[in-house]
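ok new one. same drill as before - structure tokens go in, u give me an amino acid for every spot. 276 of them this time. try not to just spam alanines like last time pls lmao
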């Protein structure tokens, strides 16, 4: 009888072993320039002026905050995240690209968005569906109330959402190709009773190696009308929905239009702007 050696769990090989999950995430998921273009538009459409102070809730590695301070000499950004790991990565890889003067206008805060203090923001942003972490109405309204208090008298809260019939599927994969790797979004679980859901981001490489479950999200899939009702309950005077357009293949084109109603797209993305 021979004894088999126990294989270490999740051992990474090949390109996956050398990969940096935060760098891959930033390449595949984020476009800070486009986010800021939208924040500026949402602010300008409400107050006909330029926003100066950004509070980036759930900032992760703070790519958007770093871009913010690059886009205006008087702009200040406050990035807030609970997790020290992406913040440290952001310091090493994003903040390090800023000039000394730009760094002075940026602050990362390791803390909870529900309690972290910052100067009142012109734009309070919570991107990549981050508020879906709050699973009850009470929790979301509490967060929106605190966000409302963290915004200046002339201020907006910008959040993004996704949904549509495809987001109710289980074991559903979406793949996108990037330079040197593939990004895979997995919808692993959707519970129609609670709307609780689990998603993963995986990365795969040409040599067959994988960074499996690089990121995991346990969320509640909220609907747009629920969110607008909660924004109103939290004190926002109005909320607007900006719907992403589609190209000829039916894929999102990154262009957003203010809408009152929208087609039943099986996989939609929208910005919701709460106006103070
Ligand atoms: C989906 S990621 C979004 C990262 C980034 N905003 C983006 O657009 O890619 C959510 C982030 O929220 C952070 N987070 C979760 N709950 C939080 C809380 N209560 N307060 C602060 N950060 C939180 C996590 O650590 C994680 O970095």
């Amino acid at each position: 009888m021979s004894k088999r050696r126990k294989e270490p769990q999740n051992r990474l090989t090949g390109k996956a072993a050398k990969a940096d999950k935060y760098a891959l995430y930033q390449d595949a998921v984020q476009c800070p320039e486009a986010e800021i273009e939208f924040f500026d538009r949402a602010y300008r459409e409400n107050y006909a002026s330029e926003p100066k102070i950004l509070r980036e809730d759930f900032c992760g590695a703070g790519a958007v905050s770093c871009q913010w301070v690059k886009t205006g000499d008087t702009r200040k950004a406050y990035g807030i995240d609970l997790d020290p790991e992406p913040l440290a990565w952001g310091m090493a890889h994003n903040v390090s690209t800023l000039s000394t003067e730009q760094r002075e206008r940026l602050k990362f805060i390791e803390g909870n968005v529900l309690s972290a203090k910052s100067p009142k923001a012109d734009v309070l942003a919570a991107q990549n569906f981050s508020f879906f972490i709050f699973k009850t109405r009470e929790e979301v309204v509490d967060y929106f109330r605190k966000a409302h208090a963290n915004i200046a008298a002339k201020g907006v809260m910008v959040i993004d959402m996704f949904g549509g019939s495809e987001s109710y599927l289980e074991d559903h994969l979406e793949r996108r190709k990037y330079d040197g790797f593939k990004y895979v979004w997995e919808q692993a679980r959707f519970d129609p009773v609670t709307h609780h859901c689990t998603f993963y981001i995986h990365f795969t490489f040409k040599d067959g190696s994988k960074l499996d479950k690089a990121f995991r999200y346990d969320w509640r899939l909220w609907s747009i009308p629920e969110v607008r009702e909660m924004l109103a309950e939290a004190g926002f005077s109005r909320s607007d929905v900006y719907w992403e357009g589609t190209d000829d293949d039916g894929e999102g084109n990154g262009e957003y239009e203010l809408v009152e109603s929208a087609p039943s797209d099986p996989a939609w993305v929208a910005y919701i702007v709460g106006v103070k």
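Residues 29-30, 58-60, 80-83, 86, 112-114, 127-128, 130, 133 surround S-adenosylmethionine (CB under 6 Å). and btw The radius of gyration is 20 Å.
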